[in-house]
Amino acid sequence: MKPVVLLIGRLPGVIGDIARQLEDMPIRWLGAHDRDEVARQLDAEPGIVCVVMGAGLDDRIRGELIGVIAHKRPDISIHLNDRPAGMAPFVRRVVGAMVLDGVDA
């Protein structure tokens, strides 16, 4: 079974684009772009192993989402991209190190 990673970004289409850029990785990608979607994904998918949040979200919203994630799923790590460009390379580095290191692909 593939590990599950939740990608959170400002626009719904960005998530699909990131997943397409990283389709070579043995990951099942989920996406969310607002508080309700984040809460739904966390409730519906117990297999989420980490969350990666894009830089396009306002810091206040990112803080709020961190609170939602930490409350609902304190067992998963949260990673924040601080650069507006380059989410795919950031996700690749984080997932490679945090999720796939030592996992047979």
Which structural class is indicated by helix and strand composition?
A: alpha/beta
Strand order of the largest sheet: 2-1-3-4
Number of helices: 4
The proportion of residues in beta strands is 15-25%
Textual characterization of the structure:
It is a single chain. By secondary structure, the chain is an alpha/beta fold. Helix content is 46%, strand content 19%. The protein is built from four helices and four strands; from the N terminus they run E-H-E-H-E-H-E-H. A four-stranded parallel β-sheet has the order 2-1-3-4, sandwiched between helices. Strand 3 (48-53), helix 3 (59-72) and strand 4 form a beta-alpha-beta unit. Helix 2 runs parallel beside helix 3 (59-72).
Describe the structure using short key phrases:
105 residues; alpha/beta; 4-stranded parallel β-sheet; 4 helices; 19% strand
Write the layout of secondary structure elements.
Elements: E1 4-8, H1 12-21, E2 28-32, H2 35-44, E3 48-53, H3 59-72, E4 77-80, H4 87-100
Parallel strand pairs: 1-2, 1-3, 3-4
